[in-house]
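Hi R.,

As promised, here are both runs. First protein below:
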Amino acid sequence: MEKIKLGIIGMGRMGITHYSIINNNPNIKIVSVADTSKIIINLMTKYIDNLEVYKDYNDLIDKSNLDALLVCTPTNLHFPIIKKAVTKNLHVFAEKPFTTKYDEAKELADIYNKKGLINQVGYVNRYNDCFIKAKQLIDDGVLGEIIRFKSEMFSRTITKCNEGSGWRAKRENGGGVIFEMASHAIDLVNYLVGIPDKIIGTSMNQIFSKNVEDAVSSTFLYKDGKSGTIYINWSDESYRKPTNKLEVFGSEGKLLVDQHSIKIYLKKENKKEGLRMGWNTLYITDIFKNVPFYVRGNEFTRQLFSFADCIKENSNESNLCTFNDGVAVLDIIDKMFDDYKKNGRI
C-alpha cells in the first residue's frame, strides 16, 4: 500500500516525541510540520531533507498533500485546527485532553464519526501493558463484582509559586491539574471501570498556582451501586516522575496497578490466569509485548502505530481511544467544575 502522508502541528515536547516514533513506522511518510518557534523551524529546515516546514498551521493544511494529521499544540488550539482538518478529510490524532470545551469536542466527534474518518485522542495509558492486563482481568470477572475503586496521579510539575506565566497557569489554555493530569486519571476510570453516572464531593486546592488548581479530588457514583474516588496532585515533590495508580476492590479480590506492575489479592486460586489465593505480583517485564521502536515507554509507540493501523484498515474498530472517549472525559470534567462551584466551597 502507498505510504500514509502525515503532517504534525506543534513541535514541542510531545510533537518531537511523536515525530521520532511515527517516523519509524514503515507505512508512514512525514510530509510536513508546523510550529511558531523560529528555532524549531530553522532546525527542521536545516537538518531534515524533503520536509515541508510551516509557521502557520493553516498553510500546512492548505498546501500539504496529506492523509492524516497529528495535533500536538496547546489544547485551546485543537478545535480550530481539527475543524479545518476535516475540510480536507484528514484522519486526526489529537493530544489529550482533546479540547478544553465539551461542546467543541462533541461537535468534532460527531463530524468525524459521520465522515468515517479515523480519530484518536492521546490517552496513552490505554496502551500501557499493565493497564491493558488490568482491564482484561476486570472484564473477565477475576475480581468478582466491582464495589470500590481509587484512581490517583501524582507529579512534581508545579513546585514553586506560579503567578500566572505559561500555559499551565491558564485554564482557558488547558492549564491546571484537571486538564493536564486529572484527565488521565478520569480516562483510566472510564476505561477500566466505566463512565460514572454522578459526580459529587469535588474539592480543589491551590498550592503554588494563583489562577488554577494544583490538587483535586472527587467521588464518582454508579447506578449499579459501585463508587470510587479520584485524587490528583501535581505539586507533590515526593514523586520524581509522574505516576498513575489505580486500586480496584471487588467481591472476590483486590487489584493495585500502575504503569510498571500489578498486585492482585484473590480470595481463591484462579488457575486460568495462573494466580494463587492471596497476593500475586505481575511486573511489566512479565507481561509486556515488544514494540518496533522505543521512546519513553512501549505505550507511546503502540498508541501511534495503532493510529496508523486504523488508517490502513479504514476502521476505528481496533481504536482504543476515539474522539468519543475524549468527549466522555470532558463531560466528567465539566461536571466536576459544576459540582465544585455549587457544593465545593464552605
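And here is the second one, sequence first, then its C-alpha cells:
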Amino acid sequence: MKAVALLQLKNNPNYQKNLDKILSYIQELPKEAIIVAPEVCLTDYDYENLEEAVKFSQYALQELLKNIKSQILILTLLVKEDDYFLNEAVVIHNGKIIHRQRKYKLFKLGDEDKFLRAGDGEDIVKFEIDGLIYGVLICFELRYKELWSKLEGADIIVVPSQWGEPRKQHLELIANALAIVNQCYVLVANSAKDGMAKSSAIYAPMGGLVRDDASEVIRGYIDLKQVRFMRRYLKLY
C-alpha cells in the first residue's frame, strides 16, 4: 500500500501563497506519499505576466527540490526555451527531478496555442521510481487514446489538470476508462478555481475510486496487488 495525496487547489494571484500552501502540505503529508498538484498550480495560466511566471516557477522549483525527500511530487509549471513558453510537468523525488515532460496537446478552446508552444510528444514515456512504473498525461492529453497506448504497462498514470466544469463528466468517465483499459491506477489532481470541474480522484484498475469535490486534499492508498491481479486475470497484454 502506498499513500496518495491529490491537491485540489485554487490558484491565488499571489504566486508565493501558492508555493507556501504546497510546501505546508509537503510537511504534513506522509513521508512516502505520492503528491500530485493541479496543472500550473504555482502561477496559473498568467498570460499577461509570462516572464514573471517563468521566473517564479524556476525559483519555486528550487524550493521544492530542497523539500521533497522520500515523497514523490508531480506538478506542471511554465518554462521558457529560446523565445517560446511551454507547460512542463516535473516529477521530483529525493531532491532530484526524475522526469520532465512538456505538454503535447494544447487546449485550443482555452487559447493555450496562442501563448504556449507544444512539446513534441517524444517525452511521453514510462519511467520508474522505487520499482513502480509511472506515466504522466497533462490535462487535455487524457482525451487521446494514442497516448494511452504509449503508457501501457505503467502501474500509475498521473494527470495534473485544469479541466473545466462544463466537461466534468468527461473527465470522470475518461479517467476511469483509462484505469480499466490500461489496468492501472490513474491519479487526477484537478484545479478547484472558479469554472473548474474539481473531480480530483484516485481511480483503481477494477474501476473503484476515491473522490471528494469538497476537500482541498484527497487522500487514499494504492494497492499494487490490484494491478497484478487484473493483469493476470484478463491477460490483455
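A quick note on the second one: The radius of gyration is 16 Å. Let me know what you think.

Best,
J.
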